[in-house]
Amino acid sequence: MAGEYFSFFLIAVVGVVARQSIGKTIDPDALRQAVNTVVLYILVPAFLLTAIWSLDGEAIDWQAPALLGAGILGTLFVGMFAFGFFKLDQRTKGALILSCAFANVACFGTPLVANYFSLGDGRGLLLIGGSMTASTVVAGSVLAGWYGAAGRNSFAFVRSVGALLRLPPVWALVAGLGLRYYEVSIPYWVRDGAGLLAAGITGLLILSVGLALRLPKGDEIWPILPAVATKLVVPPLLVFFLLKALGGGFESDLGPTVVMAGALPTQLLVLALADRFKLDCAIVALVVVASTALSFWTIPFIHGLLY
After folding, report:
1. What is the sign, positive or negative, of the torsion defined by CA atoms of 286, 32, 17, 202?
2. What are the chain's domains?
């Protein structure tokens, strides 16, 4: 997996250098927002459609996404409880909670599976990656809208749900599942075009992380540390013990892969949602970088501990 880590930090450094070098001609924050908007509104819908179409012709193993979703919801509750004790701006608090729950399957999922599991035809990993992206968009948008609102009340929650329904990834998810249900044949050139768009997501989001990155202030370090620890430890443990509790009731062979997917660092798409809903993007970027760096050691440790 070392190669993926080197690639990640190389692109992030390019973003940092770009932020410093173009600051006098282009607003780096405006550039980052533009990149994140393109990713969220165009490339992510293309990826979701590609993921659904790639699973065409076979029954979807719904147990794996359900297990993944349970781990995400459990981690979100842990994060909300833990950061309830911190006196932070709600936009910073929301950014930290989102950073705890969602994993970067797109960047590190393939090497994770190749190192620890049988890779097979890759469809299981695509199912997990698509489920993680869909969960990030749906649950992440509602939570980001809630914490990004001027005042948190029932109206703010309704507005966050309304904002979710206006996001193109949600339309793509509904359209893709609907087309699959009615067995509509998709032309190969449409599939190929969507695949080409989807391929740009990871690189652009890592570049966006570099554009958002800055040195943390003294009082920001303490909340970042529990956020990183929660992300790398809590999701795999929650999913592992849930899997054990289900026992023979969980028939999917993707269980261990879902467990280890939870140990991956923070999902890059969280930064795009933070930008969309006006959360603290710099904090998200710091958690992404710190969790990615530490995961190089924590992933083998978690795997050795659980398996």
Report:
1. positive
2. 2-299 (1.20.1530.20)
